[in-house]
Amino acid sequence: MRLDLSPDDLLSTTRAVRKRLDFDRPVERQVLLECIELAVQAPSGSNSQRWHWVFVTDPDKKARLAALYNRVFATAYTPAARDQMDEAGKRVWSSAEYLAQHLHEAPVLLIPCQWTRPATEGSQAAYWGSILPAAWSFMLAARERGLGTSWTTMHLQHEEEAADILGIPYARCAQAGLFPVAYTKGTDFKPGPRRSLDEIVHWDQW
Ligand SMILES: Cc1cc2nc3c(=O)[nH]c(=O)nc-3n(C[C@H](O)[C@H](O)[C@H](O)COP(=O)(O)O)c2cc1C
Predict the structure, then answer these.
(1) Structural domain tally of the chain?
(2) What CATH number did the domain enclosing 33 receive?
(3) What is residue 77's predicted lDDT score, i.e. its pLDDT?
(4) Ligand 1 mutation pick, 75, 150, 158, max ligand atoms within 8 A of CB
């Protein structure tokens, strides 16, 4: 399945999909591999390509990862914190809560990884800049194929436990996120609310 989105439509409608993930429709391995083929065309520092891509489809492993995620979610998303939010924030909250409750039901969870752990000193930009563009390219390629994803990072507070579940060599390899992947219910998505360019663009002077 290809949506034939224009580049601009693809870039402006690839959303964090949570409530519209179709948990009942399987995702073919071949489609996931196509997305990875495109993702690894992204840049990496010195073309180092130290990325690894861990797809999780095993129900027991998905449930254990979702439990780690929820351990963090429960501490971050408290009713008191929710009450502080404006309406837009509450909408994202409701969506995030839904995902937390259903994460284990996603047909696929993807954990992008990078070989060697991030240095505690020196360039974080070079380190993360060598994996995150590829991860986003994966999401764009997925969207073009009717798949939805959502960037998440909460489970990383328990990264070592997640590594144990999946046999990832934690001491040598860092996880960059955890993305549910599923076909979307409907394929129409709109540009999201964003700050105006006036607030964020600077010419020659801050
Ligand atoms: C670094 C990063 C971490 C994120 N972590 C989470 C997360 O743990 N859980 C979640 O539901 N969404 C997470 N998100 C998704 C954001 O909430 C989402 O990208 C943002 O609300 C914009 O959504 P939109 O592109 O659909 O408009 C994360 C996004 C990024 C880039």
Answers:
(1) 1
(2) 3.40.109.10
(3) 87
(4) 150
